[in-house]
Amino acid sequence: xxxxxDALIGGQSVKGTGAAIRAYNPTxxxxxxxxxxxxxxxxxxxxxxxxxxxxxTFRALSDEKRAVFLETIAEQIMALGDLLVERVMAESGLPxxxxxxxxxxxxxxxxLFANLLREGSWNDVRIxxxxxxxxxxxxxxxxxMIGLGPVAVFAASNFPLAFSVAGGDTASALAAGxxxxxxxxxxxxxxxxxxxxxxxxALELCGLPAGVFALINGSGNAIGQELVRHPAIKAVxxxxxxxxxxxxxxxxxxxxEPIPVYAEMSSINPLFLMQHAxxxxxxxxxxxxxxxxxxxxxxLCTNPGLVVGLAGPELDRFANAAAQALxxxxxxxxxxxxxxxxxxxxxxxxxxxxxxxxxxxAPQAEGKGAPALFVxxxxxxxxxxxxxxEIFGPASLVVACKDMAExxxxxxxxxxxxxATLQVDDADLEAARELLPVLERKVGRILANGFPxxxxxxxxxxxxxxxxxxxxxxxxxxxxxxxxxxLRPVSYQNLPQALLPEVLRDNGTATWLRREGELxxxxx
Length: 524
Ligand code: NAP
Hints:
It comes from Duganella aceris. It holds the Pfam family Aldedh. InterPro entries: Ald_DH/histidinol_DH (IPR016161), Ald_DH_C (IPR016163), Ald_DH_N (IPR016162), Aldehyde_DH_dom (IPR015590), Aldehyde_DH_Superfamily (IPR050740), ALDH_KGSADH (IPR044151). This protein is α/β, with parallel strands linked by helices and 524 residues long. 38% of the residues lie in helices and 21% in strands. The chain has two domains: 7-265 and 474-485, Aldehyde Dehydrogenase, Chain A, domain 1; 270-448, Aldehyde Dehydrogenase, Chain A, domain 2 (3-Layer(aba) Sandwich). Helix 13 packs parallel to helix 14. The mean pLDDT is 96. The structure holds NADP nicotinamide-adenine-dinucleotide phosphate.
């Protein structure tokens, strides 16, 4: 398979008519071949219309057929072999083990949603049978979920596979029966085309309408905004900057028919170091923290960008050990010159800040990011919002609080986060219990004695949280719960059996159903 630089619309290779985009190899610091051409508005219109036309056929497929489609995408991604791995490595600067792991995760996500479809609970079938003798009589009511319609997905820069073309947003939207029009990220267009072709091939092999998936290229905001504006698009999935997410939310809200935007944006993932845990294992916690901070050159949405503890000798032990582990860290290629530039600006601002002391600053290099660790006081942190802004990369800020009340104030004043982590021993449980209700209000996932990087793909995972970690804290973008973002309920009142969707009929295929408020497995 060769990379052509084309968009994929209606199952065909289509040359964009707009400006050329070239991928950039951040390790070699050079532009790559071939050129990818920005699509025009007519091509966006075509992709969205085809998605709309394919929607009814696609959502009417049996759960089994959609499951097989997802598994076929997984097989086609694996069949790309080293061609894909090497292109991702070249476009991202990320090492082979990370890319192979991310590919496994991407394929695993597709299989997880295939299993969810077969298990059937996603339909959320509820049946309240008619009560004709009741006064007043109750009608027959039956509910199931259906897909929202075509979804616009924006690939993320920092996970070229797992949060991109066939990533979690695409997998959950397709599982929900929603066609996807995907905007490739301009920093990995070749990766995007290869994975896009794997999806197109899976559509062919499964005999499904070509409009179920399209891949478009573009850079400079206009293409993404036009896509979100298109009337056929009914929801948006996005992972990226706060600025980009907010811009797309504004576009979606200003449409004649506003639509939901599920944007994952910025999070600094605080660690709260409880006093006894710190006293018992400051150095061990510091080692784990340093490892988590530099993972993926800090370009992970769950990167631990904030550490909160009580000022004193124990916190000093932690800070010294962490600084020692980080100070010698190598400068590694960042995903793009833009991300490297943002990182450089962020650490320069902190290192020059009057209320911030630099604990470690490994030698930096152009286009690269090396670890940085800073410390400030609880009072300074509380007084200056700028200190809590995300620095995307391997940098973190330690906040030394004067007492637990100040630590709780910091937790209460935080913006919404994807995660919060407690380092906690048995003797800390009382203090942790007081912090817990505050954290529940602020974050989507609370961890004990671990580190936030490494997001398990599982049913009970929440990768989401209150604004600005996401635009809608009621959902998750990882795990089976992600499908609910692209579904809505339809209730059928007194419909004859012959008109009911198959899953809702008396002898239907619902495996899990809610009958009269009771959750049962069919036939039990
Ligand atoms: P980005 O600039 O938000 O871009 C993500 C996608 O959204 C791209 O396809 C981009 O396309 C589009 N986009 C951005 N702004 C837009 C706008 N105003 N209107 C329409 N489309 C828009 O994110 P990025 O390139 O991945 O990285 C930039 C910064 O985002 C990083 O330095 C970091 O601070 C942050 N980031 C955070 C996370 C996280 O998980 N917390 C992940 C990735 C990035 P265009 O080509 O049209 O710009």
